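Hi W., the zinc ion complex you wanted:
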Amino acid sequence: MELLFLGTGAGTPSRQRNVTSIALNLQGTRSGCWLFDCGEGTQHQMMRSQVKTGKIEKIFITHLHGDHIFGLPGLLTSRSMNGISDTLTLYGPKGIKAFIDTTLSLSGSWLTFPLEIVEIAAGELFSDEHFRVTAWPLTHPVECYGFRIEEHDKPGALDAQRLLADGIKPGVLFQQLKLGKTVTMDDGRVVRGKDYLGPATKGLTLAIFGDTSPTPAAAELAANADVMVHEATLEVALEEKANSRGHSSTVQAATAAKNAGAKKLIVTHLSSRYLREDAERLLAECRAIFPNTEMAHDFSLFRL
Ligand SMILES: [Zn+2]
Ligand SMILES: [Zn+2]
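Structure:
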C-alpha cells in the first residue's frame, strides 16, 4: 500500500500546500484507491500525480469544513465526464448527502456512475475480504471523525509442490486446503490445510485523523497502528490558539502517537503561515517526543 498526500495545508491553500486530501493506494492488496478528504483543487493535485479518478472506489470525509470537502463536486463531475461507470461510495458525517445533492442540482450537474452516500456514526463502517474500517469521534467544532483501517492478515502460500509429492491432486481440494480447512480424501486420508500453508503475513493498521484537539478517542483509534496520520496545525508555542479552534500542536500530535503506541507518525494539516523552511523546526518539536515522525508535504509518498 502507499499513502500519497495530495494536500497538506490547513484552512486555506498556500503556494506550497494545497488543502487536505490523502490518497491510499491499495496496490498489493487489490487494485483501486481510497481518498481521505477532498479539499478544493484536489482533482488538480491528482492530475499532477499517479492517482486516477477512475481508480477511486471509496472517499472518506472526516468532517464538513470547506478545506476538507470543497473539492468534491468538481471531482465527482469530472469522474462522470471522463466516462467512468464504476460505483463510488462516499462516507461522511450527517449533511454530506445534502451538500452533494445541493451542489449537483443547483449547478445542473448529474453523474453517470452510481454514487452511494453513507452518512456515518462512530463504529464499524464496513468489513470486507481485505479490510475493516471503523470511525472514531474527534474533538472539533463540527462533527468530525478519524478512521482506523485494519488490513486482515494474509494467509500463507499453499505448498503445492509438497501436496503433489504427497499424491494430492490440484483442483477444488487445493482451494479448500488454501483456506486452512481439513478435508477427507476418497481413500480415507485426512489432510489438514494448515500443514501445507506458509506463515501468514500480518495485515497493516492505519489511523487517519481528521481535525482535532487532543481527544480521548486517540489512544484506541491509533492503538499500535503501523502508521498514524495526525494534524499538527500549529507549533507548540501557539498550542492554546490551536486548541481553542479544535486543532492540535506539533507536540500534542507526537504525544498522541506516543500514548497510542503507534509505530510511525506522519503529521499534516499545517497552517498556511508556515513555509518550507519552517518544516525542520516543526518536525524537531514532534521528534523530541516521538522520534519516528515524518512531516507530509504535497505529493509526499509513503510506501507501507
Ligand atoms: Zn481543516
Ligand atoms: Zn476543520
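The chain has two domains: 2-154+201-303, 160-195.

W.
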